[in-house]
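Predict structure. Chain length: 340.
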Amino acid sequence: MPEFWAGTDAGKAAHHCTVIDMDGTKVLSRRVPNNEPELLELIGDVLALAEDSPVTWAVDLNVGGGALLIALLTSHGQRLLYIPGRTVHHASRGYRGDGKTDAKDAYVIADQARMRRDLQPLQECDEIAVDLKILTARRYDLAADRTHAAAVAAAQAQHSAVAGESTAAAVVNTLARSVLALDEELAAIDAQIAARFRQHRDTEVTSACPAWALCWAPNSSLAPAVTWTPSAARADSPALPVSRDSSRISGNMRRPHRYHRRLLRVFYLSAQIAVRFCPTSKTFYDRKRVEGKSHKQAILALAGRCLDVLWALIRDQRQWTAQPSPAQPSPGQPSPPHRA
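Prediction complete.
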């Protein structure tokens, strides 16, 4: 049975879709506006062209301009892959021609989806996760505005009588009122985030450990590792370094270029908090420091462990329980006998 691959170079106002067959031959190339009727017509035409053959869709945007197309494809039960724009950019160098067009990028996306087996599938977004993403993004903006207003107010404050004192006092008064208003709005949106998060199916699992839940609970459902497998989850996390070995150079570990910045923030901060309040995490951190790791390396190692633990808890749908660490024998004492 023939199979088809549809690559879409997504944009804000319009997309370009190219469909190829098993031999890489182009069978359809079309530019469509980014609105529902035209996108539904494109999906219908591609499915009619394939008849009963399977179609694999691929897109280079998973948010923003590609959100409507992704929603329509997932609602129609289509298999959809995500190819980052960075991957498309580097892959384009291996194709004929130096020019860059939407049609060429769409063909590269389709051809890469045809050849590669390591691309991430896109799934329909959870409504609660989308709401939390909007609320947390708004909270980041409010926190930045409050920091800016407080910094300007501190800079305008003065204790000596100089020219313009009355004007400066009025500015400081206005900024102080704006800081208070931002504090009230931050408290309100925190309450919204907490209430919405409590409706998520994994609330009890991700809130089991107070030290971790303090940081990752409102953000864990936003993680890009939607498949929740160890390899897929850690592939998007900077907690797992990659090797940069060559010739006689070995053990050269570096942070990967492709990772999710929000995952870095969530698990890095949660690891720092867990070191302070979780004895098990503190034991793991101390062991890494004894091994010669720096503070940052030990925190990243703990962040990777936290990611694995969270995935296991969600997979098994059970809550985290602290296990006491086995007592370490003193240098002069023999180790306890091993029991089979």
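Summary: The radius of gyration is 26 Å.
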